[in-house]
Amino acid sequence: MPDSVLIRCKHCGTVNRVPADKLRMHPKCGKCKDMLTFPESAVEVTTASFDDEVIRWPGAVLVEFWSQTCGVCMSLMPTVYDIARQRAGNLKVVLINVESNPVLANRFKVLSLPTFIVYKNGVMINRLNGGLARARLEDWIDASTSLSFRF
């Protein structure tokens, strides 16, 4: 985990730098004093919440487009949740069900499942269509989050 993480206050929108060792101590926003939270699990995102949860998030985000009817998606789900838990504070993981959110699937031209996209500070950095074994998926995430340009 990094020395500190950036967390956007859900109440006032201020970006706060929080020391990593203070994440479990219920940090508060420096501006409005509201409680800051960093997701420790994968977050379900909808068309309505996508921009707030992904584009406006100050840091790295892994987005997975998935469906309950996709066998590969369902077999990768425990891995995705483990990655979200293990990398909390460093990587936000969001899930988009394409059946419930066809507008987002169309917006990102999702033609195969699962589709993974990595964002960094609101910019799309990399995209992967299809699933990978856990070690290869984590290597792809690491390589993607270290990139600083857009494909």
State the gist of this model.
The protein has 151 residues and is of the alpha/beta class. Helices cover 26% and strands 26% of the residues.
SSE arrangement:
Layout: E1 4-8, E2 15-19, E3 43-44, H1 50-55, E4 60-66, H2 71-86, E5 91-97, H3 102-107, E6 115-120, E7 123-129, H4 134-145
Parallel strand pairs: 3-5, 4-5
Antiparallel strand pairs: 1-2, 4-6, 6-7
Q: What top-tier CATH class of the largest domain fits best? A: Alpha Beta
Helix fraction? 25-40%
β-strand amount: 25-35%
What's the CATH architecture name of the largest domain?
Answer: 3-Layer(aba) Sandwich
**Low-confidence parts, pLDDT < 50 over ≥5 residues?**
none
By CATH, the topology of the largest domain is Glutaredoxin
Radius of gyration: 15 Å
Give the tally of β-strands. 7
The CATH superfamily of the largest domain is identified as Glutaredoxin
SSE succession:
EEEHEHEHEEH
Structural description of this entry:
The chain is of the alpha/beta class. It has helices spanning 50-55, 71-86, 102-107, 134-145, and strands at 4-8, 15-19, 43-44, 60-66, 91-97, 115-120, 123-129. Strands 3-5-4-6-7 form a 5-stranded mixed beta sheet. It has a two-stranded antiparallel sheet with strand order 1-2. The protein is globular.
Feature tags:
151 residues; alpha/beta; SH3 type barrels; 2 domains; two-stranded antiparallel sheet; 4 helices; globular
